[in-house]
Amino acid sequence: MSQQFRTVTTNAGRNAVREALTQGKTVKLSHMSVGDGGGNPVTPLSTMTKLVNERFRAQINDIVLDPATPDLFTSELFIPQAEGGWYIREVGLWMDDGTLFAVGNTPLTEKPDISSGAATDLLVRLIIRVLDAATISIEIDPAQVLATREYVDRKLDAHNKDGGAHETLARKSVQIKAGTGLTGGGTLEADRTLTIKYGNTAGTACQGNDVRLADARTPKPHKATHQTGGSDAITPADIGAADKTIQIKPGTGLTGGGTLEADRTLTVSYGTAAGTACQGNDARLSNARTPTAHKTTHKTGGTDALTPADIGAVPTTVQVIAGTGLSGGGSLAANRTLAVTYGTAAGTACQGNDARLSNARTPTAHKTTHKTGGTDALTPADIGAVPTTVQVIAGTGLSGGGSLAANRTLAVTYGTAAGTACQGNDARLSNARTPTAHKTTHKTGGTDALTPADIGAVPTTVQVIAGTGLSGGGSLTANRTLTVKYGTGAGTACQGNDARVTASEAFRLSMIGVPRYWRSTTLPAGHVWANGDLALFADWPELKKIYDAGGFAGMLLAYNANSATIAANLGKWRPNAANPTGLYVPNLSEQFFRAWGQGLTREAGTTQGDAIREIWAAWDSPAYTSVAGGAAYHDNDSSGCYQTVDGSGFHTFGVRVSLTVPTAAENRPVNVALPVVLYLGLRP
Q1: Burial, 226: exposed, middle or buried (Cβ in 10 Å; 0-12, 13-18, 19+)?
Q2: What are the Low complexity biased-composition ranges (predicted)?
Q3: N or C: which end of the chain has fewer CB within 10 A?
Q4: Which residue has the higher pLDDT, 35 or 645?
């Protein structure tokens, strides 16, 4: 079977789109890449996080949304001719954080190396379907994007169609139209006036002196009718009030309360028990209370002695230890002193008056020894300089120069020959110079006539030719129009409102969830096996639309049906939760189909076990009788022959169906095992 080519959104990409939809953000896409699949065909999977073997990656050249299909967009990657020497089998689309958003496989495409002599630029397009393409944006560096001619044409066409592209200009044919409640208007070829329509009908305005707006209008009395028992009585809830039967109830530590029919008082319960409050003059709060003495008992040897750790202290056995360069120290049982050790040896400090720090120390002379010919002479390179033998050389248009042994001057060479400069007052630069007339001589028939090709134009004899499905055209001597031919025959186009298109789409949607036989054991796109597996709405959004619209009426089980109920209804669909995210499809494996019709007592989608009508027979004969054949048989076993009291034989006969028809451990008609699939619609 030939390989199928498709593009899938990765799990990470789907999650990013869902998050963008819920949070009002956009998914930023920045790069595309291609790979060779490691030399093997590639099957794109939603679980992939990278290409099998990536060969080239670059910033996205452009993203184009399809205005006719809001969930489709096309991403473009430009591969320059300098890249190549490999084949393309896979393509990936990446988010700005480096996460793989979508992956697809492609027919085997060679991208030759420029050294082969057949190198060319290549534009790779990846068409993606998502929940809402408006959530997709492009994150690129314009300086690194290469504009194809198609890209420029598309942008220019969009610019020309954009009414706001030149916000300061408007065509004189633009109309100022009077909307509802207005009259007047017209094109921008002259001043236009819009006038408000006044009146008392729909679509007219009410003037400021309209008698209907007079302050003298007296409202109808309502008070009596609004009271309890009135014709339009108002409840407390209607005016944002509380019913008078509502209780103010005392909580823990309070007494009093009651309904809102009168003023209510809540009183604090004072006392010494739980649930009571302590008054401000409670004797237990008196400042005269004397705390129990603790100092003696807390000392070492006391009844509740404290350790240094109990009060955040350290024991006196802790040592202050003198480190390198210090002396002294000891335990914390007494004050300790640390002193700096001064000296000239390692591990000692140098005092401020150390003779070695005296400013009178004279450095060893070096200047003379470093000169050329000295004992340790320095070269120019040693001090970051250049030797005096280095030349300043006068190039083309300059004179002078020389070695760095002295100051050098470079002068510009002026003149009229090649390699000389033109001075500012050169007569050749005078504005009085008059150009040679060319206009007349360049015309057709002139002495130096220009052809259309000389000025990047095309001759008027060039034809705009109407191809298949178009009419019109002609030479460039005038404006030409191409018109699409609409119709039902070959070479004509089908209009968007063609009944055949509408009927075709309606038929496709009507097939969602309908079981059918398939010609192969390879699952076709848009289908699942009818084996009872779970189909998620996230993967099959059109399945959810059919479910939400009640398209499975009479063929649905409860989401919490037990195993016995499920086994008895293998032909039904079942939600995976009370608020489902998917449906379990019917399990039609190893089942024969039986048509269901209105008026039957049996419920649609239910399952019947195997069974046959009763086949039974047995008889006895006082004497042996031969059996001609078929399902009947004579039991030749001695247990099948009995002796009667008069000495005659008594034989047993029976029926065994296997003597005439094939039998097995199951009841079945003649059958063929065919794959059964369910169409679930288009995947995102």
Answers
A1: middle
A2: 290-303, 362-375, 434-447
A3: N
A4: 35
Pick the range with the lowest mean pLDDT from 7-11, 262-266, 471-475, 594-598.
Answer: 594-598
> With 0-12 CB in 10 A as exposed, 13-18 as middle and 19+ as buried, what is 306?
middle
Alpha carbon of 67 to those of 7, 74, 133, 230, 502: distances in Å? 20, 12, 10, 59, 19
* Higher per-residue confidence, 413 vs 306: 413
Cα 122 to Cα 81: distance, rounded to the nearest angstrom: 7
Nearest-angstrom CA–CA distance, 286 and 282: 7
Per-residue buried b or exposed e for 164-200, using 16+ beta carbons within 10 Å of the residue's own CB? eeeeeeeeeeeeeebeeebeeeeeeeeeeeeeeeeee
**Helix, strand, coil content of the chain in percent (nearest 5):** 15, 25, 60
Tokens of 566: 């499920």
The rounded Cα 35 to chain-centroid distance in angstroms is 22
Query: What's the pTM?
Result: 0.31
Question: Are the beta carbons of 676 and 530 closer than 8 angstroms?
Answer: yes
In the chain, the largest separation of any two C-alpha atoms, in whole Å, equals 160
> pLDDT tens across 284-333, in order?
766 555 555 666 777 787 788 878 888 777 788 889 798 888 888 888 78
Q: Of all residues in the chain, what percent carry a pLDDT higher than 90?
A: 25
Nearest to 76, CA basis, from 174, 135, 152: 152
| Segments in 227-354 forming alpha helices (H) | 295-298
Tokens describing residue 446: 């002139």
- Paired tokens of 379: 């070269």
Exposure on the CB side of residue 541, measured as CA atoms within 13 A? 9
Distance CA 336, CA 351 (A): 23
- Residues in a beta bridge with 103: 8, 92
